[in-house]
Design brief:
Layout: E1 4-9, H1 17-32, E2 36-41, H2 43-46, H3 56-69, E3 78-81, H4 87-96, H5 101-105, H6 108-114, H7 123-137, E4 143-145, H8 151-167, E5 177-179, H9 214-222, H10 235-239, H11 242-255, H12 259-266, H13 271-298, H14 300-328
Parallel strand pairs: 1-2, 2-3, 4-5
Helix pairs in contact: 3-13, 4-7, 4-14, 7-8, 9-13, 11-12, 11-13
The protein binds tryptophanyl-5'AMP.
Length: 333
């Protein structure tokens, strides 16, 4: 059976280096390996936290532009916006009836995002992982490439698929496999090697955005937190120094080499030299992506056409799957 890949990102803010190295870069490799790929911009997820409704449409386009600029080819992969495929929310309702509250309560991302005042968090935020399960199961995806932080949500999607199959005595849903690629799967903040790089972190200095210009990239790496020691000379030493490990990992993934090779080249040198080399490398890799994104955002007609065609292709898969689910569940039609 050929692999069917499904993955998505939220249009909550600009994409950053973590999104690129942890997800998008792998999406492109999978596409170029010949798998059938569907990549969504999940706008229904983005409204589970406070958002600017006057900007949502543009934010959605920007994520789609980043996919294409990063190497997703709309003639090979299906690129779509979640809200233009209504089957996502329809399936979510059905799956919600077989998802235990206790499991949702254990989701660490909900706990992080809801913060101390859980009572005031919305039902949308709480049930978000059920919508994510629907995103995946609706396409009978065999594999889902994501960063480490989505592992728990994916595990829940697998459980929901198995619950459905068991409850309705039907080997219907494909139980999806995660693809979490070691090195870039957890890119950390440039200000704190123990916190992940995130769109929502307050300081913009903590992340490299795909929209950053070369000057910003150089400045952010120069100011990135490090300890007072030189660049580690062994993996063991690197592993005990989170900030050093993060920068070495970023370098290795961008250069498509191993952390060992980076240590062989830079070990023992000062961080000033290493950070300059890292900035050069990052600018080299990211500048063409940023340029292409800007071009695509300059003429949104092309983007909108790609997304409209993508929605049609996505629905061709999604609609019969939902139809079959409702038949299995016994609905009148
Ligand atoms: P989102 O939009 O937060 O992130 C998009 C992708 O980027 C990865 N990622 C990272 N990888 C490495 N290091 C980091 N610091 C880092 N930060 C983010 C994420 O793991 C993700 O792969 N719930 C999802 C979106 C979603 C989805 C889906 C994903 C909705 N439905 C169905 C896959 C399949 C999310 O919020 O990702």
């Amino acid at each position: 059976m050929t692999k069917r890949i499904l993955s998505c990102m939220q249009p909550t803010a600009h994409l950053h280096l973590g999104n690129y190295l942890g997800a998008l870069k792998n999406w492109v490799d999978l596409q170029n390996d010949g798998a059938q790929c569907l990549y969504g911009v999940v706008d229904l997820h983005a409204i589970t936290v406070a958002y600017d409704h006057t900007h949502l449409k543009q934010a959605t386009r920007e994520i789609a532009a980043a996919y294409i600029a990063g190497g997703v080819d709309p003639s090979k992969s299906t690129l779509f916006v979640q809200s233009s495929v209504p089957e996502h929310s329809q399936l979510m309702w059905l799956l919600g009836t077989m998802t235990q509250l206790g499991k949702l309560e254990r989701m660490t991302q909900f706990k992080d995002k809801a913060g101390k005042d859980k009572e005031r968090a919305s039902m949308g935020l709480f049930s978000y992982p059920v919508l994510m399960a629907a995103d995946i199961l609706l396409y009978q995806a065999t594999h889902v490439p994501v960063g480490e932080d989505q592992k728990q949500h994916l595990e829940l999607a697998r459980e929901i698929a198995s619950t459905f199959n068991h409850r309705y005595d039907a080997e219907f849903f494909t139980v999806p496999e995660p693809i979490i690629k070691g090195e870039g799967a957890r890119v950390m903040s440039l200000r704190d090697g123990n916190a992940k790089m995130s769109k929502s972190a307050e300081s913009d200095m903590s992340r490299i955005n795909l929209t950053d210009d070369p000057d910003a990239i150089v400045k952010k790496f120069r100011k990135a937190k490090t300890d007072s020691e030189p660049v580690p000379e062994s993996i063991e030493n690197m592993n005990s120094r989170p900030e050093a490990k993060n920068l070495i990992t970023i370098y290795a993934v961008l250069a498509e080499t191993s952390p060992e090779a980076v240590i062989n080249e830079f070990g023992g040198q000062g961080f000033g030299t290493f950070k300059a080399a890292l900035s050069d490398l990052a600018v080299d890799k990211l500048a063409p992506i940023t340029k292409r994104m800007n071009e695509l955002m300059g003429d949104t007609d092309e983007l909108d056409n790609i997304l409209a065609a993508g929605a049609r292709s996505a629905r061709e898969i999604a609609s019969p799957v939902l139809d079959e689910v409702t038949t299995i569940m016994g609905f009148w039609k």
